[in-house]
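## retry 2 of 3
previous attempt timed out at serialization; input unchanged, resubmitting
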Amino acid sequence: QVQLVESGGGLVQPGGSLTLSCVASRSIFNILTVGWYRQDPGKQRELVARITSGGSTNYADSVKGRFTISRDNAKTTVYLQMNSLKPEDTAVYYCKVDVLTRGYWGQGTQVTVSS
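## retry succeeded, writing output
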């Protein structure tokens, strides 16, 4: 079983920044994409940002220009740099790794944007 662990969440003021990290418990081969999703209680998860094995990125319109998804040189960790945070960004953020046959989900990390 592969476990994905997200970290970096917390409480931040509007306009502030946070960086989330996603690390797998073991190596995952043949990764197609890694995505960040978010979900508030009672709502469906939505895609926030995604990066492919080739390095291409995709963002939700609501975060474009504010969030940046990236990976380290060893491709062991995926990050989500969040700038200019807004209260509507408040959610549990989840990392998802997609391979050809399935996807792996992390347990999530809470991000709260509030004064």
